[in-house]
Amino acid sequence: MPPRPWYHKTSIYQIYPRSFYDSNGDGIGDIKGILQKLDYIQGLGFETIWSSPFFSSPQADFGYDISNYTDIAPEYGTMNDALRLIEEVHKRGMRIVFDMVMNHTSDQHPWFKESRSSQDNPKADWYIWRPPSNSPHFCKKWGERPNNWNSMTGGSGWHYAPERGQYFWSSFLPFQPDLNYRNPEVKKAMFEAVRFWLGKGVDGFRLDIFNVIYKDAEFHDNPFSFKLAPTEDDPSGFFQEAKYTLNQPESFEFARELRSVTEEFGERMLLGEVSGNRQIIRKFLGDEVNNGLGLVFDFAMLDFKFTADYFRALIEEMERHYPDPFMPVYVFSNHDKHRSMFRLGDDLRKAKLLAMFQLTARGVPCMYYGEEIGMTDLKQPFGSALDPLPHKFKLVPRFIFDLLGLFANRDEVRTPMQWDGTRNAGFSSAEKTWLPVHENYPSINVQHEDGDKDSLLNIIRALGKIRQEEGALRDGPLELMDGLPDGVLGYIRKFEDNKLAVLLNFDGQAREVPIEYSECVFKLSSGDVAKEKAIQLNGFGGMIIKL
Ligand code: NOJ
Prior knowledge:
Elements: E1 12-15, H1 31-36, H2 38-44, E2 48-51, E3 55-56, E4 68-72, H3 79-91, E5 95-100, H4 110-117, E6 129-130, H5 140-144, E7 158-161, E8 166-169, H6 184-199, E9 204-207, H7 249-263, E10 269-272, H8 278-285, E11 295-296, H9 308-321, E12 329-331, H10 340-343, H11 348-360, E13 364-368, H12 388-392, H13 398-404, H14 446-450, H15 456-469, H16 471-475, E14 478-480, E15 488-495, E16 498-505, E17 511-514, E18 519-523, E19 529-530, E20 534-537, E21 542-546
Parallel strand pairs: 1-2, 1-13, 2-5, 5-9, 9-10, 10-11, 12-13
Antiparallel strand pairs: 3-4, 6-8, 7-8, 14-15, 15-16, 16-21, 17-20, 18-21, 19-20
The structure holds 1-deoxynojirimycin.
């Protein structure tokens, strides 16, 4: 068995730079702010940082609309700041991956401006352009669209450009035109951007909506579907099966090609954002060998149910679909979805147990900033959202979204990091921060939790340290334990002569597990008791023992 790549053993902390720490008092987080907090992240035990984009951008989608892939947006800092960030991360023995939005650029990118200017400019074919069609339709506008494709956010993804008398395609929002990867010049330009950052020492990339990178070459209409809302494991929705707009065979091939480009620089992380079922995710990783993207998020787990049965079945699925030489990513929140505290009904005991699961199962844990202190969603009206997404749905009353379990206003999970109990939660000295700070900051903040040895923050620190010290948790296979009391999930992690059992009680009632062990390594709560030949777990308690 070849040695595992470093990115299969690591743990990831996601930063949304705009909200992490503001070093210059303008109300917006920045790269220098991240630099000031590197020791904090290291102290949590995370080994790799993924930062959402800070490249040049009009910020219409807060950096996911790039206008220059090899420069930094001034509100976040300078090229020197970015280079210092890479250097300082490496000095601490950690790694950093940047966010590559390869599928689309901003409509303000010079490439797109040139491309839309005429049908015969040098970049005319860099984006996906189609002439109007004359399909019979009761609505002339719809009849003119090149085909029936919906964007991922609902509604047609075709947008008319009068300069060319043609439509361009956007998988996400209208100001994010998709690049045309069937044009070799586009591929070359993007690979150059990738090489630029790898040459500067970046350890890899998180890849934005990688599964839409290719669309059907023949532009076939997508079939009808009864599905209204897209789900994490099935992106079809808005009454359309996304057959020709997602997960095309060329995209799997492209994953391998990108992998070989990054490997010119050694072992580099490629972490894909892909929506689709597990067979699809596996294709992005590589069919038999790990030769595609090194890691891919499996977003179905964002809709977790807080039961031992759910997490047992999740492990079984992960082990079945991503066995060695693959590795699952355990992720429960990010900048686009509810925070896990929100899903857990603000129950801190459950948040601790979830973190313990995430940091001890066989996989790469990926934690969104603020989860370590239990930050939660801040409900905001759609009308005043800065996030462009809810504006698309401004005519739909909010309760419909809540009823369908849909999440649209991503401002709610992007509020400033809560560092302490001072004004603006210590995030910024500005009069006004770019998004409001959650009103729970006087009690939910780093400084407050620092002093409490049982806080979520300190539990995550302790687990991060154990993960680093116990090779079995980073490197060992996972074996599920059978015959445990109802509500208790248990698994064994073994590496060389290091054998650990992790026991997690997903029930609110105490449970006793008869088991022989040599040492108790970690207790989640003071109510978890290591008895002579048994373990007593408090309600929502957990323990790691050496066997
Ligand atoms: C997925 C990103 O996570 C999200 O924040 C962004 O808006 C879209 N891709 C478009 O780039």
